[in-house]
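Good morning C.,

I know you're traveling, so I'll keep this short. The sequence:
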Amino acid sequence: MSEEYWKEIASDRLLKKDYILGYFIGDRAGMRDFAKKMSKSTNLPVIVIYKNLRDIRYGFRNIYECGPSDFVSLIQHSKGIVTNSFHAVAFSLIFKKDFWVFTGKASTDSRISGLLSMVGLSERIIDESHDAITDYLAPIQYSEKNLSRLQQHIADSKCFLLNNLS
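The tokens, ready to paste straight into the viewer:
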């Protein structure tokens, strides 16, 4: 689905000011600390789609009720994203957003690694060694070549599904 398609799905902009979006599934070591440092470095608040009591402890602004259209909108309008979610990464790519993603050894993380490898953005994967990162909003250089590779993969995946479902 195209960026324009997802813009139609997205709800109206929920927040009028700039922000960093945090979407944290579980507790990956260093992820929330990274978002806090990113906030301090950029002077932007971290808005978190509330999933865990840990987020309250960090003083992040939490959004408690977030449906699919709100999720898409929050990614679309963010200035940066910190996550460990495959879907947050996928929508970050659709909207060509700057993001950082924490991964580990889980099978869902291999989907993230594979996707980012395909589009040439593996350097956006980080772990606890994030102290070396000083430019938290270093822009991603999205290239037409990499995005067309992603579009071809999406088309191939749809074709595979349709062939196997019929």
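Safe travels,
E.
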